[in-house]
Design a protein that fits this description.
Elements lengths: L2 H10 L1 E8 L1 H4 L6 H4 L1 H12 L4 E6 L7 H12 L6 E5 L9 H18 L4 E6 L3 H8 L5 H12 L4 E3 H11 L16 H20 L25 E4 L4 E6 L2 E3 L10 E4 L5 E8 L2 E7 L5 E6 L5 E4 L10 E8 L5 E9 L12 E8 L1
Parallel strand pairs: 1-2, 1-3, 3-4, 4-5
Antiparallel strand pairs: 6-16, 7-10, 8-9, 9-16, 10-15, 11-14, 11-16, 12-13, 12-15
Length: about 350
């Protein structure tokens, strides 16, 4: 299943494993995400099992984000570091999205990985939450899991449903999700140990049956029902966007929550910037902060759409996130104008906008 992974570990003695997903991959809920998350446990397994190999880790997971942002940041956050194996975990955060949307977003990620290096192995990881398992037990469906599994199988990637095993352990011990999670979503150390044990058991089995050969994975025809392939999805600095102009926004050479090297910023309502893009979808990679305000966005001179860069989580911490204002436009060149509104959430401390990049596909 992961022949290239074990070939590189035993022959090249050099190996980079990437983790691409949301907060459960990042390690939220663990006492120390660098030591007790499933990500840390799997990386440690590689290092212990293959002590002669130089094993490096790419932590490319961002809490609260799904494959809709993932397909745009895949190049910069993951592929720029040349992974040999990628664990993809977005199903939980993709819950609630339309099946076709998840299918297209997941496929863009898989195609980007395989175009970058056709020898890269991929494993699809499915996690869970109490609300998801409650819905399944009532006859509902985990649509995002279905979409991610379809794409994984089409691209020859194994699927490990560690969430299903966690649910089984919860049932075995009385049905209380707080036994293995901090909040019915994010595992505690005991929950992450279940995830780690499940994944490493599969790794041991696949290692035992590895062929000892290095092969390119084939690139199948797209699975997207509408024929659209978004493997051109890209994330570029606002100031690098075509025909960028600004009145009141200034470039700040500081990290956007550790996720992007710089951002443009404005705090005075009425400040504007504009740019053009070629594509059909567009959004922002921006900061959600305690003093964030509202953006008014117009495309091709149309009516302004309001976007809020604040939510109740901002009361506790700032974070990077995405917001989309144009989807399904006729493919072509479009003009975007952004204006800082004089409105904000009642609990926000200001009207600041901090935008790192434009997301285009």
């Amino acid at each position: 299943m992961l022949d290239n992974t074990f070939y590189k570990l035993t022959h090249d003695k050099s190996f980079t494993v990437g983790y691409f997903g949301g907060s459960i991959t990042e390690g939220a809920g663990a006492s120390d995400a660098s030591k007790t998350s499933w990500r840390a446990g799997v990386t440690d397994w590689f290092r212990v099992t293959y002590p002669d190999a130089d094993v490096r880790e790419i932590q490319a997971a961002i809490g609260g984000t799904g494959s809709d942002l993932g397909m745009y940041r895949c190049d910069a956050d993951l592929l720029s570091k040349n992974p040999d194996l990628v664990f993809v975990e977005f199903a939980v955060n993709d819950s609630g999205m339309a099946y076709d949307a998840v299918l297209c977003q997941a496929e863009a990620i898989y195609r980007k990985i395989r175009k970058h290096d056709p020898t890269t192995d991929i494993v699809c990881i499915i996690t869970t939450t109490k609300s998801i398992t409650d819905n399944l037990e009532q006859g509902g469906e985990f649509t995002a899991r279905s979409a991610h599994s379809v794409i994984a199988h089409r691209y020859g990637a194994p699927v490990i449903d560690i969430g299903n095993l966690l649910h089984y352990e919860v049932l075995k011990t009385g049905g209380d999700y707080l036994r293995f999670t901090t909040d019915t979503v994010h595992p505690n150390d005991d929950g992450y140990a279940i995830y780690t044990d499940c994944i490493t058991a599969f790794l041991r089995k696949w290692a035992d049956s590895a062929s000892g050969e290095l092969r390119n994975h084939p690139m199948p025809s797209p699975a997207a029902f509408d024929g659209k392939v978004y493997d051109n999805a890209r994330m570029i600095s606002c100031t690098a966007a075509d025909n960028y102009t600004s009145d009141g926004f200034a470039l700040t050479e500081k990290s956007l929550c550790g996720r992007y090297p710089s951002y443009i910023e404005a705090s005075v309502p009425g400040s504007t910037f504009s740019f053009t893009f070629d594509g059909e979808n567009c959004g922002f990679y921006w900061m959600l902060a305690k003093d964030s305000g509202d953006a008014l966005v117009s495309v091709d001179g149309g009516a302004e759409v309001s976007l809020r860069s604040w939510d109740h989580y901002c009361k506790s911490f700032n974070r990077a996130g995405a917001a989309f204002f144009a989807k399904g436009l006729p493919y072509g060149t479009h003009r975007v104008t952004v204006r800082l509104a004089d409105t904000k959430a009642d609990e926000s401390e200001g009207t600041v906008l901090r935008i790192g990049a434009v997301l285009i596909s």
